[in-house]
Design a protein that fits this description.
Strand order of the largest sheet: 3-6-7-8-9-10
Shape: globular
Largest sheet: 6 strands, mixed
CATH class: Alpha Beta
Structural class: alpha+beta
Helix content: 25-40%
CATH architecture: Alpha-Beta Complex
CATH superfamily: tt1808, chain A
CATH topology: tt1808, chain A
Oligomer: single chain
Number of strands: 12
């Protein structure tokens, strides 16, 4: 019988092969490869805006980066945060990042699959040891910061959360993210 780590490694190899063929790379959680739709340009704009704000505040050796694999093979999880804060040297690897090096993971909620960010990653990120998780939701102009990992019901979970509305300044430790200029999906008035 295969261990969870062996199953994960097989899924990761399969995910990488699928990515070469399709040009898209999925995430892995709970024994499944989760292929995501390509994000809309506004999603990328918000991620870049947040990364720029963080970069202006981060002390060396930290940097804000977009879309990098992070995995915990023992847990069988591979995630790709939209924005992450990590030591710059960690980004020089060809292997997925060690999630324990990540200070903050940010996800921008897609219109098509919000449960991934609000349910699945709220469970996966504390299990992977990521101390701060920020959800930015352009669907309704809200944000939610999760932090302080502890064991609840036998599983790692975030003990604290606070909700924000676009226009608020989000404080995460010594860093501030200003949401005043973040667009909402409803702001896009182009024809579908």
């Amino acid at each position: 019988m295969q261990t969870q780590e062996e199953i994960y490694r097989h899924l990761r190899d399969l995910r990488n092969e699928l990515g070469v063929v399709s040009g898209r790379y999925g995430e892995i959680s709970d024994g499944e490869i989760v292929m995501m739709m390509s994000p809309v340009p506004m999603h990328a704009y918000i991620a870049r805006s947040i990364a720029r704000q963080l970069d202006a505040q981060l002390p060396p050796p930290l940097g804000a980066f977009e879309n990098a694999d992070t995995d915990d093979a023992a847990l069988g999880k591979l995630r790709i945060p939209d924005v992450l804060v990590v030591p710059e040297d960690a980004m020089k690897s060809v292997d997925p990042l060690d999630p324990h090096e990540i200070s903050l993971a940010v996800e921008i909620v897609s219109r098509s699959n919000p449960n991934t960010d609000y349910v699945d990653k709220v469970a996966d990120y504390p299990a992977m040891g990521i101390p701060h998780y920020l959800i930015i939701d352009p669907r309704d102009g809200t944000a939610r910061h999760h932090w302080q990992i502890a064991t609840q019901n036998g599983h790692p979970a975030y003990l604290n959360q606070v909700s924000y509305s676009f226009g608020d300044k989000i404080r995460i430790g010594d860093w501030t993210i200003d949401t005043a200029d973040l667009p909402r999906y409803s702001d896009d008035q182009r024809p579908a």
